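Page 37, continued from 36.
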């Protein structure tokens, strides 16, 4: 009778261990999947940028520095190692800031603003920026789920034995946290 109880306890412990391990694997897979969504949107934005640059080139001669900066950041973004999420998001944030300067160009050039191609590109880029923001939010949610499992008892024991680690959250740059200054003086 004692042997049967020992076998049942061992089988039960193995089943619990396997359940916890599989839960950790699912959480890590969801985190990796949500990062790949960010990667897809960043690639989409990188593919749109050359068309935007070509459309804007003729209008903003004095904005050549801004265009060069956007192209340089885009090229830099494509050369960052795939597993370096923090650097990818830092360069991506800089690129988003530079794109805002190009968006503002249309205010100085009414012909550019009226251009169908420019309008389409702006809509696609705006949609892509929104998808990137949503994907960042999804990544942080899945990372929070994984981090809770890695820290919670008894999951933390299996996580430590199987080398699961916490994932860093994607942070919003400090300059984007500041309240925009609105002025009606003009």
């Amino acid at each position: 009778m004692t042997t049967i109880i020992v076998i049942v306890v061992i089988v039960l412990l193995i089943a619990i261990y396997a359940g916890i391990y599989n839960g950790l694997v699912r959480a890590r897979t969801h985190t990796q999947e949500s990062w790949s969504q960010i990667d897809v949107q960043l690639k989409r934005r990188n593919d749109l940028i050359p068309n935007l640059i070509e459309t804007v080139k003729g209008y903003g001669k004095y904005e050549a520095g801004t265009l060069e900066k956007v192209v340089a950041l885009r090229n830099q973004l494509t050369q960052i190692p795939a597993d370096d999420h923090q650097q990818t998001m830092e360069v991506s944030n800089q690129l988003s800031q530079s794109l805002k300067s190009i968006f503002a160009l249309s205010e100085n050039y009414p012909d550019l603003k009226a251009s169908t191609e420019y309008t389409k590109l702006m809509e696609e880029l705006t949609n892509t920026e929104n998808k990137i923001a949503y994907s960042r939010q999804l990544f942080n949610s899945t990372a929070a789920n994984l981090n809770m499992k890695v820290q919670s008892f008894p999951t933390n024991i299996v996580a430590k034995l199987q080398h699961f680690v916490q994932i860093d959250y994607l942070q919003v740059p400090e300059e984007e946290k500041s309240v925009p200054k609105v002025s009606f003086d003009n």
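The chain has a mean pLDDT of 86. Flag for discussion at group meeting. Residues 2-57 form the longest helix (56 residues).
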